[in-house]
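Hey everyone, long-time lurker, first post.

I ran two proteins through the pipeline my lab uses and got sequence/structure pairs for each. Pasting them in order. The first:
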Amino acid sequence: MTCTYQNMDVDVDVDINVDVAIAATGDTSRLPIRKILILDDDSFFRELVKRLLTSRGYETLEARSPAEADALLSCKPDLAIIDYRLPGADGTVYIESLRQRGCNFPIVFCSGSTYSQQTLATVRNLLGVDLILRKPINSNEFLEHIQTLLPVPEILCISKIDITEEQPVDSTEDATRATESAANFEVPESIEYVNENYSETPPVQDDEAATTLAMLAALSIEYIAELPSMIAIIHADFSQGMRDQQQEHFQSASDMAHRIRGTAGSFGLEDVSRIAGLLEDTIDREVLDSSTGSEKKNSDDSYTQNAILELIESLENAVAAVAARTAPSSNFTPDEASESSDIESYEDFTAPTDAHKILIVTSSDQLLQEISGSLSETSNLDVQFAQSAVDVFPMLNTFNPDVILIDAELPNINGNDLSRMIRCNSLWARLKIVVILPDAAFVSRDQAYRAGADDYIVKPIIEKELMVRIQNH
């Protein structure tokens, strides 16, 4: 196409791309738009991804299942974001079917599941997946990845040649600038469609971060309000599974924990995400894993049942803590809600002035006696005890310990898992964790530190060593 720029006595003929001409003339009604298919069975995660993408100028197509995704292929998506764990299907199987049907658009493989090396090799090498992302996602990094795979044409950013009588410019320089602008602009060949309702005003770059944060905050409040009902479904499914020993009930509980694991973390609810992950992994490992050849696995074992029920309760407590901080009851004013809440903000977390508070977590009477005897001679310590991980979280809020001693060999939820759960909550970020290990082997120490421990002490307890550890913290 040849465009003629006229001003005074200057005529410049330039061969440029048709989309550049559209932008130059101000007619934005036929600018191309990039379409992204989102295939995920979690409605909140789809909404999160949708809002992130639309804030950057993409159009989204949403599907809950492969069948719904197939119906949207007629809209000719430019890219697809596909979850691994779909209802009644496997994301890799669906990707394979897309490739067999000649769908060559970029695909992002995204899930909170743990991928085996075989799965990774399959999606990368055989299915041609362009990007593999793990849930929870980081919003900014996610958008950067998508924009790298599928840039939004910056046609609107091309400046029109503005020659005015008041400010004449050299015609040769102007013609060169116009020629270079047109020659350097390329519209990707994959763009075959146009958007009839394209907005004439592009988003302001400086406001993108603030807009994204505001959007995430609003949506996260909706999500937090729905979490209790999701946890109730987990509890109901697991309880029904314990009664009838039907694997589909345990699988349903695991699926819901899996959803929370990926989506809660994407909203920044790290403690909720990690506890849900522990719950999912425990159900999968102890109840659903058929590698042992046992049909029932451990689903009818009281030890396993109690461990899972404790994790469900911990998940409920974590959600309640988040809800208390972010969504106080409408019956209270903000000040009243703050005063009535059982969850203190971190700024209000104050150390005692007259005694140092120590919380000891162990179910062993012998260990409890050893520690009690060691600490009994010290007058400036306020010591309390908990026998299980479930007892710990209410005490963290009411007792506000300075140091917590955790027996690594706790039943149900072990010491390392409890350390991880504590580290998930920013309220207890500065709480010092000392893990009591059965031995001083490197593996034991490494696992404790990786779980978030600040220090360790080895059984049997030596009084002087225990006091040194506590005083150090």
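...and the second, right after it:
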Amino acid sequence: MTIFYPPYCAITSGLFITMFPAFWVYTRVTGNYHTDLKERLGLIPLEKVERISGHPRIWMHAVSLGEVKVAAAVISALKPMVPGASFIVSTMTEHGRKMALDTFGEEVPIIYAPFDLIFSVRMALSFLRPDVVVFLETEIWPSWVFEAHRMGIKTALVNGRISVRSIKRYLRLRPFFREVLKNFDLFSMILKEDASRIRAMGANPRKITINGNAKYDLLGVSADSDAEIKMRTILNLEPSDKVLIAGSTREGEEKIILGAYQEILKKFPEMLLIIAPRHIERAQSIGALVKKQGLRYQMRTDLENQQNKRTAGIVIFNTFGELFNLYSVATIVFCGASMVPLGGQNPFEPAIWGKQVFYGSSMEDFLDAKVLLEDVGAGTLVKGPHDFAKKAIWFLENPQELKRSGERGRQAVLENQGAAKKHARMIALLLEDKNIEIKCRKV
């Protein structure tokens, strides 16, 4: 038992108990957490526990949308490797839960992850009795990890990613995280840089291996031509129409996008702009910004039926779960969270549709994808509205090169799939052999 864990438990439990009355009132007033509070406290419904059949039991924690896709790819790869295994998937967010339910249906029990409190995680682990808990990407929850280890449950960080932005915060608390990481049995990381960072945090180098990014493995089969047809119908688009899509934008980026768009309009006055903010509750404020610029817009929800045709030059998507398919109709795509210091978004999602991808200088969370696309000329760094407009106009005036570079990007994505199988193999080995260290190469 580490000297840091008891104080951590005391602090987190004390804060929760102190704040719970106010939190309980909040759940009743807002409806948030109202229906799932019991699950988050570790009280897993009996009907979900009873649906778990087969052994070994593999619990995969996928915090939100992107991690759910990784979980789907890894589970698909694991099934033939570990015949008879049963799976449980947990999420943190409502959107992640919905994605998981849509992805797995009745095949896999979907639960909300327990709060990282000693009593919550003990309760959840006791109900589910997994043989291994797989945390995806950057999910490092101290109580969950400590308690799983104490109960003899193996733990793995899979598709592991430690960003440039987060490593500094981790290193400030290195003594604590070193003790947390001692309880992991496996670190199956995305890149060499991720492996180096988690080693700097205190992970045992003999437990670290590098296996690529499983987030890209399902993209090829997800890019469905029927989705493009449906999206063109919704947006009233002809195949020749030029469309600029700004996906997963964050506050401050829309102003830059609108500045670039107004310059592009001077050369291509029929260009359609679609803004899909990362947080759809910002749609109204974005609409006000568009209106302030003297431009017309429609909300995606205004186009719900054939009677309401798109007539404006700007559409703001205020719906959830449509961005990936939306990329299918783009001429040029901008990946948000990159003009502000937030690490970017996955540029492979538009690239798999054969689209030229633009982004700002903050792509720390997707450096591997950025480098790969730039190597084949399918990724374009832009440094402001004028630079964005200038480069976009060049591609629009050279449609053959725009098409060729987009096709190169798509091919690059397809050629770099297979990481899910590598990660799955490490989990399978962990289940077979307690001495996983001999299977991992030093980094």
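Reply from user beta_strand_b:
Welcome! Quick read of the second one: The longest strand covers residues 154-160. The mean pLDDT is 92.
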